[in-house]
Design brief:
Largest sheet: 2 strands, antiparallel
Helix content: over 70%
Number of strands: 2
CATH superfamily: MFS general substrate transporter like domains
Strand content: under 5%
Radius of gyration: 23 Å
Distance between the termini: 29 Å
Number of domains: 1
Strand order of the largest sheet: 1-2
CATH architecture: Up-down Bundle
Length: 511
C-alpha cells in the first residue's frame, strides 16, 4: 500500500512569521549551494575548451580533432574524468569531518571553513601548472563542497518555520542551479579568450566563496545549534529574532527537550545503526543514490561534451548548456512555490514519469540516428536539446531539491548531523561514480546509457510511491511522532523506540 500522507493539521502550532532577516540569512547561506553548482557546471565547459585540453590532455585534444573518431568515445579519458570526479571523492571524506565540526562548533563556523577551503582550491586550479596542482585544487574545492553541503541544508531547515521549511531549504538547490547557470555563461564567454580562458573560468569560482565567508559573519547561528551547545539564553533570543514574535516558549521547550534527548546519545553514528533510525537513514541514503542515477549530473557535468557528441560545434554546445542552465533555475523556482503547498511526494512521483519518458526518447533517437562517425541533423539535435530541457525541468522541481530537503528535516536532533553526513557522503560517492565513469560508459554503452538511467528512474518511482512519506508542514522535531510512527511500513521500526544512556545502551523503559 502507498505511504500514509500526514496532514498539516497533525502538527503542533508554534508561533512565528516569515521575517526579512530569516530570508537574508537563507540567501547568504545558500551561496554554499552556489559554490557546489558552479563547480558542477564549470568542469564540463572547461574540459571542452581546446586550450585546456592542449595543456593537460593533449591525447584527448588530438582525438577530438580527428574527424573519423568515434563520436561516443572521443572524450573517453580516465584523467579527464578524474579532473571532474576528484572533487566529489574529497567531498565524501570531508562530509564526515564536517559532521563533527557542525555538532561541536555550529553551522556558521562550518560554512566559514567551507569558504576558506574552496578559495584554496580555486587558487590551485586557476594557477595550475601541472596535473598535480590541478587535481589538488579540485580536492581542495571538494573539501569546501563537503563542508558547505553538510552545513547549509541543516542551517536552512533549522532557522525556518515549519510552514516555509521546504521553500527556504530549497534555496540551497536554487543556488546550486544558479551556480550551474553562471558556470555555463562563464564557459560560453571564456571559451573565446585564448590561451587562458579556462583559468579565468576556474578562478571566478572564488567569488561565491568570498560572499559566503563574509556573509557568514553577519548571519545568526541556528537556535538548535546554540541550545545543543548549552547556550540556552542566546538560543531563545535568536529564536525570538528569527520568528519575529516574543512568545516562543512552546518551540523553545521543544528544542530543549530534543537537545536533552540528543545528549543521552554519545555515539550518534552507532545509534544510526539501531532499528529506530532506519526509516530516515534508509530514505536519505536511497534518495541520494536515486538522485544521481537519474543521470542528471552526467548531463550537467558533460552538457557541452554531450552536445558536441550529437553534432553541435564548440560554441553552440556551450550556448546549449546555457539554455539548459536557465531551464534548471526557473524550474527550481517552481519547487520553491509548490513544495509547501503540494507537498514532497507528488513532486517526486510526477517527475519520475517525465524523466522516464524523456530519457527513453533521447536514447531511442541516439540509437537510431547517431552512428559512431555521423552526427544528428540540426532538427534532431534541437529535439535532443528540448528533451534534455524537459528532463532537467522535472528533476529541478523534484529530486534535485528534495534530495537535500528530506534528509535535512527527517532525522531527530540526536542523529541529525551524523545522519545528514551519511546522506551527503552517499551523494558525493554516487556523484563521484557518475563523474568518473560517464564518459567510459558512453563509449561502451553508447545510446544504451540513457536506457540504463531510465531503468533507475522506474525503480525510484516505485520506491517513492510506497516508502517516502509526506513531511509537509510537520515541525522538524515532531517527524518521528507525526510521520514515522504513522507510516504503514516504517512504524514497525518505531516499536522499540528507547532512550539511550551515555554508553548508548538501551534502557529498560521506552520513551
Amino acid at each position: 500500500m502507498p505511504a500514509v500522507v500526514v496532514s498539516d493539521g497533525n502538527a503542533p502550532a508554534f508561533e512565528g512569521r516569515t521575517t526579512v532577516y530569516v530570508i537574508i540569512c537563507g540567501i547568504i547561506a545558500a551561496f554554499g549551494g552556489f559554490i557546489f553548482g558552479f563547480d558542477n557546471g564549470i568542469s564540463g565547459g572547461v574540459t571542452a575548451m581546446d586550450d585546456f585540453l592542449k595543456e593537460f590532455f593533449p591525447l584527448v585534444y588530438e582525438r577530438k580533432k580527428n574527424a573519423h573518431e568515434d563520436n561516443y568515445c572521443k572524450y573517453n579519458d580516465a584523467y579527464l574524468q578524474l579532473f571532474t570526479s576528484s572533487l566529489y571523492l574529497a567531498a565524501l571524506v570531508a562530509s564526515f569531518i564536517a559532521s563533527k565540526v557542525c555538532s561541536s562548533f555550529g553551522r556558521k563556523p562550518t560554512m566559514q571553513i567551507a569558504s576558506i577551503m574552496a578559495l584554496l582550491g580555486v587558487a590551485l586550479t586557476a594557477g595550475a601548472k601541472n596535473m598535480i596542482m590541478l587535481i589538488m585544487g579540485r580536492i581542495g574545492l571538494g573539501f569546501g563542497v563537503g563542508f558547505a553541503n553538510q552545513a547549509v541544508p541543516l542551517f536552512l531547515s533549522e532557522i525556518a518555520h515549519s510552514k516555509i521549511r521546504g521553500s527556504l531549504n530549497i534555496l540551497f538547490q536554487l543556488f546550486v542551479t544558479i551556480g550551474i547557470l553562471a558556470a555555463s555563461l562563464v564557459n560560453y564567454f571564456c571559451e573565446a579568450v585564448h590561451p587562458n580562458g579556462w583559468r579565468i573560468a576556474l578562478g571566478i569560482a572564488g567569488v561565491p566563496a568570498v560572499i559566503l565567508f563574509f556573509g557568514s559573519l553577519i548571519i545568526t547561528e541556528t537556535p538548535t545549534s546554540l541550545i545543543e551547545r548549552e547556550k540556552f539564553e542566546q538560543g531563545k533570543q535568536t529564536l525570538r529574532k528569527i520568528r519575529g514574535v516574543e512568545n516562543v516558549d512552546a518551540e523553545y521547550d521543544s528544542l530543549v527537550h530534543a537537545s536533552n534527548v540528543a545528549k543521552q546519545v554519545k555515539a550518534p553514528f552507532k545509534k544510526l545503526m539501531k532499528p529506530v533510525s532506519r526509516p530516515p537513514l534508509i530514505i536519505s541514503v536511497c534518495l541520494q543514490v536515486f538522485q544521481q542515477f537519474t543521470g542528471i549530473n552526467a548531463i550537467i557535468f558533460y552538457a557541452p561534451v554531450l552536445f558536441q557528441t550529437v553534432g553541435f560545434k564548440s560554441n553552440a554546445s556551450l550556448l546549449s548548456a546555457v539554455i539548459t542552465g536557465l531551464v534548471n533555475v526557473f524550474s527550481t523556482l517552481v519547487s520553491v512555490f509548490l513544495v509547501d503547498k503540494a507537498g514532497r511526494r507528488i513532486l517526486l512521483l510526477q517527475a519520475c514519469v517525465q524523466m522516464f519518458i524523456t530519457q527513453g526518447i533521447i536514447g531511442a533517437i541516439m540509437m537510431a540516428k547517431l552512428t559512431p562517425t555521423s552526427t544528428l541533423s540540426p532538427t534532431e539535435g534541437v529535439i535532443v536539446v528540448i528533451l534534455v530541457c524537459l528532463f532537467i525541468m522535472s528533476f529541478a522541481w523534484s529530486w534535485g531539491p528534495l534530495g537535500w530537503l528530506i534528509p535535512s528535516e527527517t532525522f531527530p536532533l540526536e542523529t541529525r548531523t551524523a545522519g545528514f553526513s551519511c546522506a551527503v557522503s552517499m551523494n558525493m560517492f554516487c556523484t563521484f561514480i557518475i563523474a568518473q565513469s560517464f564518459l567510459s560508459m558512453l563509449c561502451t554503452m553508447r545510446a544504451g546509457i540513457f536506457f540504463f538511467f531510465a531503468a533507475w528512474i522506474l525503480v525510484m518511482g516505485i520506491f517513492a510511491y510506497f516508502l517516502v512519506p509526506e513531511t509537509k508542514g510537520v515541525p522538524i522535531d515532531s517527524i518521528a511522532e507525526r510521520v514515522w510512527k504513522q507510516h504503514w511500513f516504517w512504524k514497525r521500526y518505531m516499536v522499540h523506540d528507547y532512550a539511550y544512556d551515555s554508553d548508548d545502551d538501551e534502557r529498560k523503559t521506552p520513551k
